[in-house]
Amino acid sequence: MTNFNGTLLENNTVLSTQNRGYAYGDALFETIKVSGGKILFWEDHYFRLMASMRIMRMEIPMHFTMEFLEDEINKTIEANGLSEASSRVKIMVHRNEGGLYTPNTNAVGFNISVNQINNDFYVLDTSLYEVDLFKDYYVSPSLLSTLKTNNKALHVVGSIYVKENGFTNCLLLNTNKHVVEALNGNIFLVKGNTIKTPPLSEGCLKGIMRTQLLRIIKELPDYELIEAPISPFELQKADELFITNVMVGIQAISKYRKKLFTNEVASDLLKKLNIKIRLD
Fold first, then answer.
1. According to CATH, what is the number of the domain 2-117?
2. Longest Cα separation, the chain
3. Which of the residues 67, 79, 247, 251 has the least number of beta carbons within 10 Å of its own beta carbon?
């Protein structure tokens, strides 16, 4: 069952061809992990969505409170029989139909979909995870590039490149030729006791898991956190590289070109992340 503006519909319900999310990519989305019925990091997701709607000049309905959307998510989870399970929730907010590039209205609608997943908490995947640089197209750093919009052509083409060349993922460059992020998450680089990640000004996604990791690392005296541009030349000198997103938590990269990486820091941070989830 899919939740469309508060009404539960069958998953095969036809979407209008005039939907602006479909026609123009005029939509935002949040991908949320639910662990055993508990919505993880909901406050961060909610405030990111509200901030993104303001940037996109969408009208925020008065009833779009944190409590209202949380209830709609839980209603959708229950309708799919997943109240006690773990699931992947996608909430999409689209500008309402009408107009061409210039919309007739800034009012919005929403839909929520749910799929079951296996892991309640985050587990470190230690299988081979090989990445390469994707250099066909570049991220143009701006406030828009930090949002989760439906405009993901670069990520789609990059994912096809990954499939065609037998990699697991690719790292994206911005127009300054700095490493910005992976196709599906933020990038962190470990060298000694220093953990480095690109700042939002480089054009990377304002990731929810990135936010969690920044909070955790800042409280650890054993590590120094740096938000600074990452050059491609730094990748092969790193001790570890890992990717973060809310669905996998932390994904350790094991190989970039001829360089193999360890995953001790990623494993340590993942344990601390799971402890934080249990305590929250």
1. 3.30.470.10
2. 55
3. 67
Which amino acid is it at 233?
Answer: F
Length of the chain: 280
- Cα–Cα nearest to 33, from 99, 117, 108: 117
CATH number of 130-279: 3.20.10.10
Close Cβ partners of 78 (under 8 Å, ≥ 6 residues apart): none
Give the pLDDT band (50/70/90) at residue 68.
very high
- pLDDT band of 10, cuts 50, 70, 90: confident
**Which residues in the chain are classed under CATH 3.30.470.10?**
2-117
Average pLDDT, the chain: 96
Indicate the pairing of strand 169-174 with strand 179-182.
Answer: antiparallel
Of the candidates 238, 33, 270, the residue with the CA atom closest to the CA atom of residue 131: 238
Instruction: Report the C-alpha gap between 178 and 192 in whole angstroms.
Output: 21
Instruction: For residue 108, give the H/E element and its range.
Output: strand 108-117
Question: Going by DSSP bridges, is the β-strand pair 255-256/259-260 parallel, antiparallel, or unpaired?
Answer: antiparallel
Condensed to tens digits (0 to 9), the pLDDT of residues 204-218 reads 999 999 999 999 999
